[in-house]
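Internal tracking record. Fields below are filled automatically when a chain is submitted to the structure queue. Please do not edit lines marked as system-generated. If the sequence contains nonstandard residues, flag them in the REMARKS field before resubmitting.
Queue: standard
Priority: normal
Entity type: single polypeptide chain
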Amino acid sequence: MMATVDTDILITAWRHILDGAEKPWVLFEHGTCVLLEEPTGAPAEQATEILREFGPVQVATSAGDFRVLELKNGEGWLVTSHHPDVVTFVATAEPDDPSHLAVGMLGRAKRDQDGTELRVAHVEDAP
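SYSTEM-GENERATED OUTPUT FOLLOWS
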């Protein structure tokens, strides 16, 4: 079972990460964020459709690919996916092993869980 990060901590982290983006974004329960580059309609619905298609992991396909980016503020990592606007936050306290492979696998698992469960935790509309 994965450690769960408090929703308020996730919202604060994503607000800091996306400061100045001026685009709506939707946070899902396990830390995956969908940035809406071309918003159309209700943000939660649009993000849910994107995550339904691009969230679930399929090993040995591009849906299993990821890249790990270490945040300069020391709060954790961003784990990218095969969709440029679907990224998962992993807090420094979450992984037992802080190697990029372990963090990436954890972030990918969190994205898979978010892409399967599709539970929106927060919607941030553009200013």
